[in-house]
Amino acid sequence: MGKFEKKPQRTQKKSGSKKTVLLVSVIAAVVLVVGVFAAFLLLRDDGKIVGNLYVAGVDVGGMTKEEAKQAITERLKLYGENTMEVDLYGRSFPLYTTTYDPDHVQLVDIFGKPMDPSEATEATQDPSESSESSETEPESSETEPETEATEPTEKTPEDAPLDADGKPLEYLGQLTISPADANVALDVDAAVNAAFKYGRKSILFFSQLKVKTLSERHDLEASDYLTVNEEKIRSILQAAADKYGSTLTESTVNATAGADKAIHIAFGTKGSKLDVAALYQQLLDAYIAAEFHQQYTMEETFPAPVDLDKLYSSYCTAPVNAVCDEGTYEITDGAAGYGFEMADAVKLLDKAKPGESVTITMGTLEPQYTREKLEATLFHDVLGYVESPHSYNPPRTRNLELACEQINGLILKPGETFSFNKVVGQRTAERGFQEAGVYVGADTVDQLGGGVCQVASTVYYCTLQAELEVIERTEHRYVPAYIPWGMDATVYWGSLDYQFRNNSSYPIRIEAECNSRYVIMKFVGTETRDYTLKFDSDSQITSRWEEKIVEMTPEEAAEKGYKDGQVIVDPYSAAKVKTYKYKYDKDGKEIACEFIDNSSYARRDKEIVKIVQPEEPTEPSTEPTEPSTAPTTAPTEPSTEPTEPTPEEP
User: Fold this and answer.
1) Cys-Cys with 427: which of 207, 433, 487, 554 at CB 3.0–4.6 Å?
2) pLDDT above 70: residue 61
3) Dist CA 609 CA 483 (whole Å)
4) How far apart, in whole angstroms, are the C-alpha atoms of residue 411 and residue 502?
5) d(CA 239, CA 184)
6) What percent of the chain has pLDDT over 70?
7) pLDDT-derived band of residue 538, with 50, 70 and 90 as boundaries?
8) Which residues contact 214 (CB under 8 A, 6 or more apart)?
9) C-alpha to C-alpha distance for 479 and 476, rounded to whole angstroms
10) What b/e sequence results for 299-326 when a residue is b if at least 16 CB atoms lie within 10 Å of its CB, and e otherwise?
11) Are the CB atoms for 326 and 313 separated by under 8 Å?
12) Using an 8 Å Cβ cutoff, are 186 and 76 in contact?
């Protein structure tokens, strides 16, 4: 090495790098501490039980263990204070079946046709209501039912379960288990620990709830922690099973022959079973939930119902009705049957109970209609009778006679409608009708068939007496003279008609006659009413007629055939009339007042002829007369289409 050569120098560590390492270590330690602390905060258990969790019926959710123990211990007092009550129920069952419905018995009319029940009267009711067959009270069975389940002595609880038809089940009785017999015990510590663990998970050294609160109630399975006196409870349940259980027996049917022919029915009983194991488990769950009122429905089997329709077809011969021919009104013979009336049998069987015996007696079955009954009732009673007077007027009287001849003997079947114009027909000369007075507007003029309105009015009054259904009726223009006001009906071919319907259950024959003094109308049929009628009216004169003088020259009067002082227009006062009918019972007591119709009549003044001599003509003045001023109102053009009044045949 030369003298100028330098020695190598030693490299020194920088103090700054040491400081950096130290700083990083400190930061890492701080982060670790903070992370651990944060993890502690996040994973720290609050020591409370998950929400919405129940133990022995107690909501322990959100409680600490100590709080849960206190609550459950307090709840345990209920087991020593409450008796377990179990309501027992069974199902009713039909003893018999039938298609017969007493509320919908198909009745027939006298012609053998089905009748609407709304049209039925006392005379058409099912004769079974007065049949020889009598109702027999149920006999006591020699063998009493094995169970009293069908004869509850206690009132059915309001909360009774319902059957498929929405009706309460049959209440059988109640069994009870006292606190001493149940001897319920609960391991509180074990139950609380199980509740505390429910819903928790472990993370490292920590435990944490998965959720704070359950979405719905959850009852902790406490059977591992709750004990009861199983032997005692099962013995109580078995005693109830023996008491309320029964053996299935089928119904039997036997018939006796001879004069005392009858059908004897011994109704069966249902089989009923109490499932001890199932009910014990139900009660164990109830004790766990601390619910001390339970319901239990017995397991049941039922006997086959007695087929009443089959019994009828096997042992009975149905009666045959007598029938009236619609065309000839001849009556065919009916025939009695033999057996029992369905209506009586249904009433009898409805009263029977399981295990009882009943006897259905047999006898003669009368038909709804017999020849004797129809002959005694058809056209037997006068339903309406009216006489209306008429004066001597040969053309008008002949018209009355012809109208009555067309109506006389007419038979209206039930439901049939009478039309005056249809029955009497058109009033023509070819048919013998003559000209007589007819109302045309305010005038009376002669036309063919004049006067037949009196026949129509007499028919209408009879209709009211028979209480038949009026379909069409119009009062006259003027008040009638031959029948009470409000009791009239006007007709005219092609426009006005009188119609009514036979709304009774029997045919009606109309007897019509015109003699020298009266038009006589009679409705003959079958009386079904138990009351009498009276008619009255409320009449109000709205405008009284006045007398008017019609002056005529001798020549004018002679041309029309009038004499001085002769009445050429008969007067009528205007009136409004309300008609009523009153009903009276057999003792004469009024039972009803019914409004019938309104009638409104016009006024017509009395006109008397006065013959006056014509005045002598005067000499015309020679002085010219100034023309008057022009009229201020233009003359009214006459109508080119005059309105024709509707004629009436008074």
Assistant:
1) 433
2) yes
3) 29
4) 10
5) 21
6) 82
7) very high
8) 50, 51, 52, 53, 61, 199
9) 7
10) ebebbebbebeebbeebbeebbbbbbee
11) no
12) yes
In this prediction, residue 33 has a pLDDT band, given cuts at 50, 70 and 90, of low
Phi/psi of residue 108, nearest 5 degrees = -125, 155
Average pLDDT over residues 495-502: 96
Cβ atoms within 10 Å, residue 448: 21
The residue type at 108: V
pLDDT tens-digit readout, 518-532 = 999 999 999 999 999
| Closest listed residue to residue 444, CA positions, set 562, 603, 551, 570 | 570
Contact 367, 335 (CB under 8 A): yes
DSSP SS3 for 230: helix
pTM: 0.56
Query: Confidence band (pLDDT; 50, 70, 90) for 23?
Result: confident
Q: How far apart are CA 61 and CA 216, in angstroms?
A: 12
Position 45 confidence tier, pLDDT thresholds 50, 70, 90? low
Sheet strands side by side (includes 590-601): 532-543, 574-584, 590-601
Query: Cα(22)–Cα(19) distance, rounded to whole angstroms?
Result: 5
What angle, rounded to 10 degrees, do the helices at 230-244 and 276-288 form?
130
Looking at the DSSP bridge assignments, the partners of residue 4 are none
Q: How far apart, in whole angstroms, are the C-alpha atoms of residue 562 and residue 610?
A: 9
pLDDT (tens digit, 9 = 90+) per residue, 390-419?
Answer: 998 999 999 999 999 999 999 999 999 999
Q: What is the rounded CA–CA span in Å between residue 584 and residue 514? A: 32
Range list of β-strands (E), 407-473: 410-412, 417-419, 435-440, 443-448, 469-472
* Strand extents, DSSP E, 122-184: 170-177
List CB contacts of 60: < 8 A, sequence separation 6 or more: 49, 53, 54, 67, 68, 71, 72, 192, 195
What pairing do the DSSP bridges indicate for beta strands 306-307 and 96-97?
parallel
Average pLDDT of the chain, as a whole number: 84
47, 65 Cβ separation under 8 angstroms: yes
